[in-house]
Predict the 3D structure of the following.
Amino acid sequence: MENTENLVARLCAQRDLTDEEFHALLVTDRWDAQLVEAADRVRRAHYGVDVYIRGLIEFTNYCKNNCYYCGIRRDNRNAVRYRLTQAQILACCAEGYALGFRTFVLQGGEDPYFTDDRLCAIVAAIRKNHPDCAITLSVGERTHESYQRLFDAGADRYLLRHETADFTHYGRLHPAELSAENRQRCLFDLKAIGYQVGSGFMVGSPYQTTENLIADLRFLQKLQPDMIGIGPYITHAETPFAGQKSGSLELTLRLVSILRLMFPYALIPATTALGTIHPEGREMGLKAGANVVMPNLSPTDVRKLYALYENKICTGEEAAQCIGCLSRRVENAGYRVVTARGDVKKA
Ligand code: SAH
């Protein structure tokens, strides 16, 4: 096998490698200057030093699903449940707008309370109050018809990580009523409707192999998403995976760089999970090729309750403090927060 330098050069030129070559890059998790520098070069060529901000509103932690890794799974009886009202969600958006946010991300568990009618009303109200903003939804698997109605109500973007592309691995992370097939179907439906689509996966989730990660890269090549979110899996004590260990910072960073080289135009966040496993995880993510951060706009009193995993950061501060802190971090890493909508720059 060739040395990393050659592999990185070829990945830059071709935006692709063979499975064997990807394997060589992914089988280790050591920090790799060549990979990081190449990714930063490509990121600067497409997006300069700009970092887009997305105001994240975690509007419900009720969930009908029972994913084995997730802290807000249905069977976690110790989770204290909440859902925001439409008025509360609109207040978060208004506060965010005043702080410079031009994208709002509504994320939540799969909460049956939020029927199409209710969710469409919320989307339409945000659209009316903030016509110049992008509205991103991240509310899991729904029908084609539901996605269409939400799009018609004014939603522009949708985040739905495929979690793991390998069907067998998917089956080890989820109960039988959930399938990789349906999740992937959702992603192609969203794309066909006209959403800017974000997908992604957890790094270091239980039972994950290097081959699984290569399958994730191949799936993304097929989907050609506009946004790609990845983060380390982080253990939560009140899940069936309580005894499993969390994913690695270094492997996540390597994958951020590889994704930047494969998808030069992509919007790639330095995720909260990265910031949770290392105090400077998000700065390292930006330097490795990420160009988005997602400060929390949820009301402070519910932040701790949206606990997908343990020790989640940024659960204490007000929105204004959160964006202030993140802007400083972005600048310290050598980049600059911009308030533009930040749509994908696909060729
Ligand atoms: N219900 C929505 C939103 C899920 S939460 C949906 O189905 O898309 C957003 C993401 O958090 C998930 O897609 C998953 O990749 C990630 N996540 C969940 N539990 C996690 C954990 N224990 N560690 C790290 N990431 C986790």
Notes: Residues 155 and 339 are 19 Å apart (CA to CA).
